[in-house]
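Reminder to self: tokens first, then the designed residues, so the page reads top to bottom the way the pipeline ran.
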């Protein structure tokens, strides 16, 4: 009788622990997915805003700005402090890609977001800068800064 009771108790405890750990993992994965989508939505809305500004399309610009605001709000609510600080820093210095300081802040913001999504491996900030704005190194003498896109927000 004791063996049967202990066996059933062991099965019950094992099932409860499996349910609890599975539920925790599911919640963590859901939050991580929500954050990653918020980061991607913010970058897309930034790009859409610049494109609309180039086309002088006020309706598209307003739509993109609304989506940008929504994505930033989701980041403020769900992202870790490091990501929120990096996003705030980029906006604090003007949210324009027209000078080395803001380009560096933009690249740092994306690197911080990427680090938070556990994308795997390490990536240099200069690689992010090259991929996102076509500029490898960020220096005060960079000629390419003059041709960088401006983001007026």
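Designed residues (153 positions):
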């Amino acid at each position: 009788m004791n063996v049967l009771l202990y066996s059933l108790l062991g099965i019950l405890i094992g099932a409860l622990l499996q349910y609890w750990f599975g539920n925790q993992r599911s919640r963590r994965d859901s939050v991580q997915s929500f954050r990653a989508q918020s980061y991607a939505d913010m970058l897309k809305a930034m790009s859409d805003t610049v494109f609309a500004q180039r086309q002088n399309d006020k309706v598209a610009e307003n739509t993109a700005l609304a989506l940008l605001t929504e994505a930033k709000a989701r980041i403020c609510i769900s992202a870790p402090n490091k990501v929120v600080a990096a996003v705030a820093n980029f906006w604090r210095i003007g949210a324009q890609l027209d000078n080395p300081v803001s380009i560096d802040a933009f690249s740092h913001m994306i690197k911080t977001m990427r680090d938070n999504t556990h994308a795997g491996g390490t990536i240099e900030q200069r690689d992010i800068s090259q991929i996102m704005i076509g500029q490898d190194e960020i220096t005060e003498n960079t000629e390419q800064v003059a041709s960088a896109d401006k983001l007026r927000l």
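The two ends are 73 Å apart (CA to CA).
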